[in-house]
Amino acid sequence: MKKTLLLSALLPALLGHADAVGVKLRPQGELLTRTVQAALAELSTKDLPVTLDTASGSTLTLGGVGVSAAPFNPDVAARVVTVGGERRIEFNPQGPLPLAEAVRAELQRELGLKAWTAAAAAARFGGADLNGDGAVDLSDLALLMENLGKTGTLTGDLNQDRRVDDADLKLFSRQYTLP
């Protein structure tokens, strides 16, 4: 009980509250950057702003680049390729969807959203109930801490940047309350 009280008092103070969910993507070019920013703005709320963080993450391109410059299937709006360990999402410039729709559809899949809505983003990015028991508690923190510092698709990756780090701890601390 003392540990629970101490942790609940210290965690927000040590980590601060999450100001925003920074979606880590690296769009190439002004048009794609603006399109991604506009799409993410649709997910934002006052309580949980969703912003673009270009420091790391998958590279987004309009068309194929370099060795992946093979022609697109005309029925495909986007494709995911890995070249030299770099994950890229390439959008078909002559695809079946307008660019804004293609970006929303592909990012919905990439981010694991059930729908392209602010409510779906809040549930996904704010979903600190990691064990699905209906409560955000120390068992959820234990699951997050088990993967802290690891990369990949992991339990505890609350901001969906494919790593469990301090950003995920900040999101968790925002939802954790005393029992």
Q: What is the residue-averaged pLDDT?
A: 82
What's the count of strands? 4
Distance between the termini: 10 Å
Whole-number tally of structural domains: 2
Order of secondary-structure elements = HEHEEEHHHH
Structural class: alpha/beta
Low-confidence stretches: 1-18
Structure annotation, total helices: 6
Mind telling me the C-alpha Rg? 18 Å
Helix content: 25-40%
Largest sheet: 4 strands, mixed
Shape: elongated
**Into which percentage range does the β-strand content fall?**
15-25%
Order of the strands making up the biggest sheet: 1-2-4-3
3D architecture notes:
The relative contact order is 0.17. Helix 2 (30-41) links the parallel strand 1 (21-27) and strand 2 (50-62). This protein has 179 residues and is α/β, with parallel strands linked by helices. The chain is elongated. The chain is built from six helices and four strands, in the order αβαβββαααα. Strands 1-2-4-3 form a four-stranded mixed beta sheet, covered by helices on one side. Residues 1-18 form the signal peptide. InterPro entries: Dockerin_1_rpt (IPR002105), Dockerin_dom_sf (IPR036439), EF_Hand_1_Ca_BS (IPR018247).
How is the secondary structure organized here?
Layout: H1 2-15, E1 21-27, H2 30-41, E2 50-62, E3 78-83, E4 86-91, H3 99-111, H4 118-125, H5 138-147, H6 166-175
Parallel strand pairs: 1-2, 2-4
Antiparallel strand pairs: 3-4
Task: List its salient traits.
alpha/beta; EF-hand domain-containing protein; single chain; EF_Hand_1_Ca_BS; 179 residues; disordered N terminus; signal; 2 domains; Dockerin_dom_sf; hydrolase activity, hydrolyzing O-glycosyl compounds
